[in-house]
Design brief:
The chain is of the alpha/beta class. Helix content is 40%, strand content 26%. It has one domain (37-210): Vaccinia Virus protein VP39 (Rossmann fold, 3-Layer(aba) Sandwich), CATH 3.40.50.150. It has helices spanning 13-25, 63-72, 97-112, 123-129, 148-161, 165-173, 179-193, and strands at 6-10, 31-35, 48-54, 74-85, 91-93, 137-147, 199-210.
Length: 212
């Protein structure tokens, strides 16, 4: 609604700066970005009409605690929403062995870093554990399907992400694989994204919960 206000949160200052600049470039005067830890949101009880997170719960050690915080700052009758990917159900074509190895490593590395890579299938359970009644939890399953330019962008993104410390260092330090193998998988991502028939389907679970 034009008269509404949106607050975006992130613990990383550079992300907030980038988001603020993007909102300003679009002329969005009712959108602001503030530093916050989702485990302890700096807002009073029952502050917001809607609280949502997107692809966050899969990366944290206490997704139930974060949903509980989201519920706390939501007004009675308001909504809490989340969407999370489910990496075990990804599908792609062509199917080079290096991408299958990426999928295997992602499961190991995500859990070693304290996350749950298949979060999509758990969202409704986490919501109930966070205090929502079963009849107040709406859950659904959807997916994105990338082809063409979107495939190229996705492949380049992952070619870069797996050589970042959060992935590469964990993989090597935990003995899951060598740096050489990671860089080979990065090259495979780049090559895969250039193929004319390439596609990837990314399933995710969604919840929409009412605070009664």
């Amino acid at each position: 609604m034009p008269q509404g206000k949106v607050i975006g949160c992130d613990p990383v200052g550079s992300v907030l700066e980038q988001a603020t600049a993007d909102a300003a470039s679009r002329g969005l005067s009712n959108v602001v970005f503030e530093p916050a830890d989702a485990n302890a949101l700096p807002y009073a009880d029952e502050t917001f009409d809607v609280v949502t997170c997107h692809q966050v719960l899969q990366h944290v050690s206490d997704p139930v605690g974060i949903l509980r915080e989201m519920r706390r700052v939501t007004k009675r009758g308001g909504l809490v929403a989340a969407r999370e990917a489910d990496y075990a159900t990804f599908a792609w074509y062509p199917e080079p062995p290096a991408l299958a190895r990426w999928a295997e490593l992602y499961q190991l590395i995500s859990r070693a870093n304290g996350g749950e890579p298949n979060a999509g299938r758990y969202c409704h359970v986490w919501a109930r554990r966070a205090g929502f009644e079963s009849h107040d939890i709406g859950s659904s399953w959807d997916h994105w399907r990338y082809t063409g330019e979107r495939v190229r962008q996705f492949s380049e993104s992952w070619a870069g992400r797996i050589v970042q410390p959060g992935f590469l260092k964990t993989a090597v330090d935990k003995g899951f694989c060598s740096e050489e193998e990671i860089r080979g998988i990065s090259d495979a991502w780049k090559a895969w994204g250039t193929q004319e028939d390439a596609f990837i389907a990314i399933p995710h679970g969604q919840i929409l919960c009412r605070k009664s």
